[in-house]
Amino acid sequence: MTDAPTTTILFLLFPGITQLDFTAPAQALSRMPGVVLAGAAASLEPIATDSGFAIVPTHDFARAPQADILCVPGGHGVTDALNDKATIDFIARQAAGAQWVTSVCTGAFLLGRAGLLAGRRATTHWGYTHLLPLVGASHENARVVEDGHVVTSGGVTSGLDFALTLIARLKGDAVAQAIQLAIEYDPAPPFTGGHPDRAPEAVTAGLKARVYDAAAARMEAALMA
Fold this sequence. Notes:
CATH architecture: 3-Layer(aba) Sandwich
Shape: globular
Order of helices and strands: EHEEEEEHHEHEEEEHHH
Number of domains: 1
Largest sheet: 7 strands, mixed
CATH superfamily: Class I glutamine amidotransferase (GATase) domain
Mean pLDDT: 96
Radius of gyration: 17 Å
Structural class: alpha/beta
Number of strands: 11
Helix content: 25-40%
Strand content: 15-25%
Number of helices: 7
């Protein structure tokens, strides 16, 4: 009797990661039958997240297993990671052997820097979508965008939608629906303004002025470096 085959899901970890970009899809994907999750970083040192606590990688780049599903989260640390050769080389190397290459939020720009979005449709956090052409991608206004074996998702909470979409592709709708039910993902937010298409204009403008105009400028500078 042989062991059941496993699917290796590998998350890239880097300083300044948005923890929910990682932990939300990881929670859903970990419940898919026959999977093993791993988190790879440049070293085994704890990775500082944007939430004030750290995540400990399971592997460093040199010893990471080959991913069947590669997932690249986002976060404000992307701007530094974009020009870290070891990180970009690791993404490219893993993507070459992966069945699925995926990103959450601004992780799309790390895929792009590794040459994986050229000529593809993609999405990212709404504050940065105008920068996707800098990595050769065309923006599609959706929470999850599939283009061949490359799947990108929008900002932060979109990672759950991406995970359930991918589970449905791999294991069928019934499995994805069971996992959605198990984690009680039944969104009923107190406001309908989770995207600029629906948020009050003043709220969007204020958030852009406080955070995303400067953040997008930093991202653009890193992409142009």
